[in-house]
Amino acid sequence: MSTFLSGYSIQRWLELCPQGYLDETVYGHGPDEKEPEALLANEPLLEDAIRTTVQLVVGERAALAASSGLVNCAPDYPSKNFLATQTLDEARHVEIFTQRLYDLGVRSEDLESTIDRYVNPNLVKFAEVLLEKVEAKDFVAGVVGQNIVLEGMAFSVFEMMETASRQLNAKFANTLTGTIADERRHVGFGENRIGSLIAQYPEKKPEIERMQAEMSYHMLATFSAAFSYTGENVAEGRRVAAEAFAERGEEPQPITWHGTDLSAADAHQMEAVLAETVLGEFKNRLGRIGLDYQTPIAPAA
Ligand SMILES: [Fe+2]
Ligand SMILES: [Fe+2]
Predict the structure, then answer these.
(1) 90 C-alpha to center of ligand 1: Å?
(2) pLDDT of residue 2 exceeding 60
(3) Predicted model pTM
(4) Exposed / middle / buried, residue 23 (Cβ in 10 Å: 0-12, 13-18, 19+)
């Protein structure tokens, strides 16, 4: 466990993260970067951005509750130390996405009511399945649910959003870049730490596999609801993007993510590439830690 120890120490975290890729950022982005005027001035697109950001805040609040809860049920100090760094990462993610809501015009006194209004109920159920395991102090199930399932999902969602935002919203894209780097580290811990524990407690497998299937079900339902909203705004988003490119005298470029051009795909195709990517990652990661991926039943459309 010695490479594991040094790879996930607080010292390593300081060097990589606050003194590394977050150095000189403000709420995760460059100090002078702002949300684009064209977004702030367009009511449907602004509402869409608020709705999307609310899901990020809710997902990160769940990650904060899970990683902090797992500190106290971790069986060893290297894991506790790593989870303490992760707790701060997740608190930072909650803060930077909350700050984005403020940047999009949400007033601080309206934060909770805005979250209640826009939160996807399927995402709440997804988080509840995980937090039940954490509350029961079930370390192995909690780390699989948090560091493999929740963060595997977050990683791909952030990557897709980062790719889609890179050309016209550098502020949001850069905010996501730092969180992607954090999530990559969290997912790596899940894989490295849990494989040996699964081998040690094989009797836990069926219950953990059931949890994964249940979380995957709620995740797919979350995607399906989210992309039905996206579908309503795709055309408007492309019109505004075309205007922004014309103003800059640039031609819009294809935005390819896992083989799909996000600048031309419809909402259904976007949902399909995201679901396929996340489930493919689950399968690989679970296989590496000795768990069998369980296909969730497809949520009703
Ligand atoms: Fe996070
Ligand atoms: Fe994370």
Answers:
(1) 5
(2) no
(3) 0.95
(4) exposed
